[in-house]
Specification:
single chain, about 725 residues, ten-stranded mixed sheet, two-stranded antiparallel ribbon, elongated
């Protein structure tokens, strides 16, 4: 091993490689458990430490993480922490508190005071048993109170974003509470550090006064200078390397001053980020310059360093594990109990209050930062440090499963839809279409098709009208970013740009469209939930693939086709404008019947012509072979009231090839049912490319109906299929 690690540089590089790889590998498992990445990073750090790797392979650990090399790892991890705390301060957007200030302050302060008091009371039990006599009881008790009061703002933000809760009432109140909580808790911790570093209360008071003067100078003198700097950076291009250098120098000076005062360099980094103007161009540019390096490389180094200091083996008795359980119980009772009761008193429901309490009980990364400060100062022993690390892991790990039980996916979707929906047109009888837009190119074609479905014949004059005969919804789902205010604003801007072509085309066609957009970690589930809440008759998905794919109907499209309770259409737009000549390949499956039902919907306009293509084997070419198809078409269409219907029966070995050949005869749209006979099948992974979808030069609408019994029952009862309720 020494041959691979001849000097300190190669050893440090090897440490970085091992730490990053371990974090990402553990992350695969935690992602499957729907846990935030911080769980993986903390767990990987502990596994690389004496708790596992040092126990199984002590020689490897001793060589890779040699004691003399830990100093370099510590310094680099502290640099990463300084940059990370700057990013956390940068995300504390005052807009989070708008309209929620009173409730947020009340809940957050309660969620600090209650666990702080309980932590101080717990110190009476822990201090004589597990603390070093050289540490004063006041410093130990204050530190335990502060450690119990911490909420992990970045972890909480990631959970809220991944669960899609940021736009709900409980999510917005929780993130505001966490913001207030972070500021208050770090101010308390700054005082605790001052007490621990001072020789007496008098020294702590002097340190606190100087710290208050530092905070005032940052707000009154430094912030106006930063506002003028930010005004010059309206775009990412304006953030030059010189500007980045100025910001970083000011950041490190702020951390330096805070460390000299005695309130820790991390508080200086957090303070500088908090006062930085939150203008979109400025914050976005800084995030893009720093975020990936900090989160992917530097922060895992801190977790590994913390893991190397976590010795679970010190909990070598039943009594030690009982005390660890007591620490976890006190932490949960103080944070969850205080937050839940306070939230209920401010007017939230019990379900919302419980969800808020669970979220505020998340500690994660911020707790580890605080614990490392305490261990470095000698305020807590390695045993207490290990117990508190386990407490941080436990409270973070249980957040997602408990939140899932309190706030189910169905309840979340209903609250989310109600929170983000733009006021819809007045309810009207007719056809409701939910257009799900993932690519701005698909929007105009969707509107053109939806207009054709909503058109109806006015009884007075026999002309077509597209007003008042149904409802149109446009849905744009944004993938979670893991960050909060600046990134969320960027995602909202991206969503608005994606919906813009659709809304512009709808405006030109004088169509009313209700647009919705929100963050969704599971888009297929949310599409189905929105369709059910809005009673959509048709879910319309856009399809765009720049290259040939073996899974053209896989991924989100597959999941929606599999789980939707109404008709689903996947539109491959090849310049769809007018919908007049329509081809419907038909072999008799339930999906084909749904395709016929949609074509029937379009026939209300006199200029529409629908051609039903039925393919028979070459050896059976008589008209009788097409009798069943004719009867089915007559059953669905009846007597056409507007357009024309014609039946075309051809003999061909391949129905898909026959449909492909016929589609080249000047049709505007091909409506085809999902089925293997057309080379279209639902699957997550495929080995045969869908030729019809790939090679058809005409705009194509692939139709799926779930469950199949709905279409059968509707046809058997001679009920118009397009009016049934799924």
């Amino acid at each position: 091993m020494d041959l691979l690690l001849p000097d300190s540089l190669t050893r440090f590089i090897a440490q970085v490689v091992v730490i990053i790889v371990a974090s990402r590998l553990v992350g695969l498992g935690t992602r499957w458990l729907r846990q935030p990445m911080v769980i993986a990073e903390v767990t990987a750090g502990i596994l690389l430490g004496p708790s596992l790797l040092g126990w199984l392979l002590p020689e490897l650990t001793a060589s890779l993480f040699e004691a003399s090399s830990l100093g370099i790892l510590k310094i680099v991890s502290q640099l990463g922490l300084i940059l990370f705390m700057f990013l956390i301060g940068l995300e504390l957007d005052p807009e989070l508190l708008r309209g929620r200030g009173r409730a947020s302050v009340a809940i957050s302060h309660t969620s600090i005071v209650v666990p702080f008091v309980l932590g101080c009371l717990l110190a009476f039990y822990l201090y004589p048993r597990y603390s070093d006599p050289s540490v004063s009881f006041v410093a130990f008790a204050l530190f335990m109170g502060a450690a119990m009061s911490i909420t992990a703002f970045p972890v909480l933000a990631r959970i809220l974003s991944e669960r899609g809760l940021l736009r709900t009432r409980v999510g917005s109140v929780t993130i505001a509470c966490a913001a207030v909580d972070d500021v208050t808790a770090w101010c308390i911790l700054a005082f605790v550090v001052a007490v621990a570093r001072s020789t007496g209360i008098g020294g702590a008071v002097i340190t606190t006064v100087v710290a208050l003067a530092y905070i005032a100078a940052m707000i009154l003198l430094v912030r106006p200078l930063l506002v003028r700097m930010a005004a010059r950076v309206a775009t990412r291009e304006a953030m030059t390397q010189n500007m980045v250098a100025v910001v970083l120098v000011m950041l490190f000076v702020s951390s330096w001053v805070a460390e000299l005062i005695g309130i820790h360099a991390l508080f200086g980094a957090f303070m500088f980020g908090a006062i930085l103007p939150k203008g979109q161009g400025f914050t976005h540019a800084l995030l893009e310059k720093l975020e990936d390096l900090v989160l992917v490389v530097l922060l895992p180094l801190f977790f590994a360093y913390s893991g190397l200091r976590t010795q679970i083996g010190l909990l070598d008795s039943v009594d030690a594990w009982v005390v660890c359980g007591l620490v976890i119980a006190v932490a949960c009772a103080g944070k969850f109990g205080g937050s839940t009761i306070a939230a209920r008193l401010t007017g939230l429901s019990w379900r919302e209050s419980s969800a808020l309490g669970i979220l505020m009980n998340t500690r994660g990364l911020m707790e580890l930062i605080v614990l490392n400060i305490g261990l470095d100062l000698g305020v807590i022993s390695p045993l207490i440090f290990s117990m508190m690390v386990l407490m941080a892991l436990f409270t973070t790990f249980i957040t997602t499963p408990l939140l899932q039980r309190i706030y189910s996916d169905e309840e979340l979707s209903q609250d989310l839809i109600a929170a983000v929906e733009v006021p819809a047109p007045a309810p009207a009888p007719g056809f409701t279409v939910l257009m799900c837009v993932a690519d701005e190119r698909s929007g105009p074609g969707m509107v053109n098709l939806a207009r054709a479905f909503l058109a109806n014949r006015e009884q007075s004059g026999g002309t077509a009208s597209s007003q008042g005969k149904g409802q149109l919804y446009a849905l744009q789902l944004v993938p979670p970013s893991g960050r909060v205010s600046p990134k969320m604003a960027r995602n909202e801007h991206r969503a608005a740009a994606t919906l813009a072509p659709l809304l512009e085309r709808a405006k030109n066609l004088q169509l009313d469209v209700s647009a919705m957009s929100f963050v969704s970690p599971e888009p297929a589930r949310d599409i189905c939930n929105v369709a059910e809440v809005r009673a959509a008759d048709l879910i319309l998905l856009g399809w765009h693939k720049p290259v040939i794919s073996q899974t053209m109907l896989g991924g989100v499209v597959h999941d929606v086709l599999e789980h939707a309770s109404t008709t689903v259409g996947v539109l491959a737009d090849r310049g769809l404008d007018e919908v007049r000549r329509i081809l419907v390949p038909f072999q008799g499956s339930e999906h084909d019947r749904s395709a016929l039902a949609l074509a029937n919907r379009l026939l209300i306009r006199p200029e529409v012509e629908v051609t039903i293509l039925h393919v028979t084997p070459p050896e059976r070419t008589t008209d009788e072979e097409g009798l069943g198809a004719r009867q089915m078409a007559a059953h669905v269409f009846g007597e056409p009231t507007g357009g024309q219907v014609r039946m075309k029966i051809v003999a061909h070995e391949s129905p898909a090839d026959a449909a492909l050949e016929e589609s080249a005869a000047g049709y505007d749209l091909v409506i085809v049912g999902l089925g293997r006979e057309w080379g279209l099948a639902q699957r997550h992974f495929g080995v045969h490319p869908e030729r019809l979808m790939r090679d058809c030069s005409t705009s194509l609408l692939v139709v799926g109906q779930q469950p199949a019994e709905i279409a059968r029952a509707a046809l058997a009862d001679d009920v118009d299929v397009n009016r049934h309720e799924a």
